[in-house]
Amino acid sequence: MPATGAKPVGAQDEASAAEAVRRMFDSIAPRYDLLNHLLSANVDRLWWRRTARRFRPVLARPDAAILDICCGTGDLTMALLKLRPRGAQPILAGDFAPAMLRRGAQKFGSPAFRKSCKAPYTDAPYAVALEADALHLPLRAQSLDLIVTAFGFRNLTNYDAGLREFYRVLKPGGQLGILEFSEPGGLIGKAYAIYFRRVLPAIGRMVCGKDGPYNYLPSSVGDFPPPSELLAMMRTAGFVDCSWQPYTFGIAGLYTAARPPVV
Q: Where does S-adenosyl-L-methionine bind (predicted)?
């Protein structure tokens, strides 16, 4: 049966699944960045930058309305900001886990980060933290030029509803980018599976002191639709130009699509 959304152990319905995901990410927020960089050997930093570069034309437009949803601690938000021009409209950085969002706001709102941007401090691009559920965005229909999300989409409790909500708030011609894990095939896939299902949870448990979250990660990736299925779901939701670009032997990949322009 095709996956319809995230189902943490013990969740009985979409509401309880969403609450379990929220609690889980809030609980690991203090160690989240450390573990991400450690467990990926810092390859995740390359994924953020590559994803941001894919949308450089939109990011270069000062008036573009952009949302990074499920932004977590803001790594992708920061990569996007580095490609925004001075005086640009702020990026909306949304997440429904308050502890994760607070850490992100501290990061991309810091004076040190703003000074690192290629613009005078007072004109430096910035982001606004928005506590928001990806399935119920507090935004007007057809109000965004770009939505991106990194490693958060698979945690939605209803993938179809998430895609429909993204479609609703994108302008005609607006673009969508979903960066997510996948399961590579071949020998690399076998070696990765051992690491992902055995080594990663053990490291996560040692560093984080919690068992559940880093057992959930490999199971959530294993349950996530393969690229062909997710691309089909995107087309069913109304998106066009749907494609998937694998990153690092297919360990992760970027899904891109667009809401059709007005004819």
A: 73, 95, 133-134
How would you class 9 by CB atoms within 10 Å of its CB: exposed for 0-12, middle for 13-18, buried for 19 or more? exposed
To the question of whether residue 134 is assigned a binding role by annotation, the answer is yes
Q: Is 73 annotated as a binding residue?
A: yes
Q: Is 219 left (phi over 0), alpha (psi -120 to 50) or beta?
A: alpha
Say if residues 208 and 180 touch (Cβ distance below 8 Å).
no
Q: Which residues of the chain have pLDDT under 50?
A: 1
- C-alpha 255: how far from its chain's center? 11
Is the pTM value of this prediction over 0.90? yes
Q: Letter for the amino acid at 249?
A: F
Retrieve residue 174's tokens: 């607006």
Instruction: Delineate the domains of the chain, giving CATH numbers in brackets.
Output: 14-183+226-259 (3.40.50.150)
User: What is the reported pLDDT for 39?
Assistant: 67
Q: Are 182 and 246 in contact (CB under 8 A)?
A: yes
